[in-house]
Task: structure prediction
Amino acid sequence: MRWFAILIVILVLVPTASSAQQRWTWPEKTKNMKVFPQNPGPEALRSIMTGFTRALGVRCSYCHVGEEGQPLSEFDFVSDENANKDRAREMIRMLQDIQLHLDKLDRSGPKKVEVGCATCHRGVAKPMKLEDVLIAAWKADGAAAAMEQYDELRDRYYGRGAYDFGEASLNAVGYAMLEAGDLDDAVSVLERNRDLFPDSFNAWDSLGEAHMKAGHTEEAIECLQKSLELEPRNRHATQLLEELRGG
Ligand code: HEC
Ligand code: HEC
Result:
């Protein structure tokens, strides 16, 4: 009679689990629309709100009062208590302003470029350049923390539009460290970039410059020579090599 017991479990558990979720539907009438027209209708509301979640890479609870994992019927969508809801409203107004300017533009081509939340946000809530995220992490918690964050972001976002994992990002972080006189960290970040992009003449050039500033003459010469092998027209590397050999 085991199948019977299983059937009862299914009958008891499945309907209660799903009925809690089915209770919530997109409202026919909205109560607290301050930017969009009141009562956009369930279909339009669904497409706007799910559009927001995708553009920012977040869930409903990012802007609304409610707990992730709880059924939507437990959420209070009318409330303005979650500060991100008003932030989102300001963004919608900003987008409307942007649209006004775009409409005045004498366009260079026949096709209108659509601008939306995703144009800036690209799947993240705080649309920052990767180098700026990492430089902020370095300033707050040090170079190791910044590189840990780099690995986490790379695992999560590589291949999507959110961040530029090309060679320019870590290169910029390395130069910010060089400028601040944080030479050891600059060398290690630029080494990592060289390991990720071993065929990039610029990654070798930057690492060479960092070694040079850190007083590692031998490594500097090696890196700059490698850079010149990859790109014989790299005048920056030629100049640095002349300095190194002259001095
Ligand atoms: C990026 C922020 C953001 C996200 C994410 C978001 N919303 Fe909203 N939502 C808003 C804003 C802002 C309004 C009010 C718009 C206005 O004032 O015109 C709103 C309004 C609503 C309303 C109308 C409430 C009323 O009666 O006034 C519902 C329902 C709603 N959202 C559901 C959802 C659901 C469900 C999700 C997840 C799928 C979601 N939202 C995700 C920002 C967001
Ligand atoms: C022109 C670029 C741009 C567009 C378009 C844009 N945003 Fe933003 N958004 C930003 C920037 C920049 C910030 C960060 C502001 C800050 O904290 O300094 C931000 C922040 C936010 C935040 C707060 C995030 C947080 O955690 O503090 C929300 C919510 C948000 N945007 C929602 C939206 C929605 C919804 C749309 C579309 C209606 C949108 N944004 C369109 C640039 C944009």
